[in-house]
Specification:
The complex is a heterodimer of chains A (114) and B (114).
Chain A (H helix, E strand, L loop, with lengths): L3 E2 L4 E5 L4 E7 L6 E7 L6 E7 L4 E3 L3 E6 L4 E6 L8 E11 L2 E6 L3 E6 L1
Chain B lengths: L4 E3 L2 E4 L5 E6 L6 E7 L6 E7 L2 E4 L8 E4 L6 E5 L8 E8 L8 E2 L3 E5 L1
Parallel strand pairs in B: 2-11
Antiparallel strand pairs in B: 1-3, 3-8, 4-5, 4-9, 5-6, 7-8, 9-10, 9-11
Classes of the chains: A mainly beta (114), B mainly beta (114).
């Protein structure tokens, strides 16, 4: 079936560098995407979202880019800090019987070295 | 800041025993989700409630799993009998509407079946 997936399972960066985490999706009908951050022992935490009528959305130190042509989503973290170390998931909303089911990909582990 | 409450935090049980997990969503959140997360993977939806009604339970193994949200507030997820393969993190999340937007997750219940 169609699914959301990630290219890189682990990303290691130095503190202060910019990080880019990628995600591929296969459901062309998806119109809403979310990035979550999950720290060890905790539940996922909302970071930023984007709708399909947008190409880019910026938050505090984070930017999400959406390329609908190639069904690709990315999360950019500026000036990465040790506190950014976590697993990052992209999720897409799949329509199901009048509501939406948030469906998660595998995740990418971000490791920030001081 | 309001949080999704889950208990217990950890549960160890023997196979064939019954286990139950409890979740109290953020006050006013109509939609409640139960996800299962296996180590190294993204959360997978088990069941979604809108108030007291089930919206989607297509991925819930109904021969052994059951979920209820009788008064449309807190919810219980039960497994009977537990199997070794049920060992995972069980996450509860809530959101204000059915659009799958911005889920708030609890810290989860880590289940180990021996």
């Amino acid at each position: 079936g169609e699914s959301v997936g990630l290219h890189l399972p682990t990303l290691s960066v130095q503190e202060g560098d910019n990080s880019i985490i990628n995600c591929a999706y296969s459901n062309s009908a998806s119109d809403y995407f979310i990035w979550y951050k999950q720290e060890s022992g905790k539940g996922p935490q909302f970071i930023i979202d984007i709708r399909s009528n947008m190409d880019k959305r910026q938050g505090q130190r984070v930017t999400v880019l959406l390329n609908k042509t190639v069904k690709h989503l990315s999360l950019q973290i500026a000036a990465t800090q040790p506190g950014d170390s976590a697993v990052y998931f992209c999720a897409e909303n799949l329509a199901s019987g009048g509501s939406y089911i948030p469906t998660f990909g595998r995740g990418t582990s971000l490791i920030v070295h001081p | 800041e309001a949080e999704v409450a889950q208990s217990p935090r950890y549960k160890i049980t023997e196979k064939s025993q019954a286990v139950a997990f409890w979740c109290d969503p953020i006050s006013g959140h109509a939609t409640l989700y139960w996800y299962r997360q296996i180590l190294g993977q993204g959360p997978e939806l088990l069941v979604q409630f809108q108030d007291e009604s089930v919206v989607d339970d297509s991925q819930l193994p109904k021969d052994r799993f059951s979920a209820e949200r009788l008064k449309g507030v807190d919810s219980t997820l039960k497994i009977q009998p537990a199997e070794l393969g049920d060992s995972a993190m069980y996450l509860c999340a809530s959101s204000q509407d059915t659009g799958g937007e911005k889920l708030f997750f609890g810290s989860g219940t880590q289940l180990s079946v021996l």
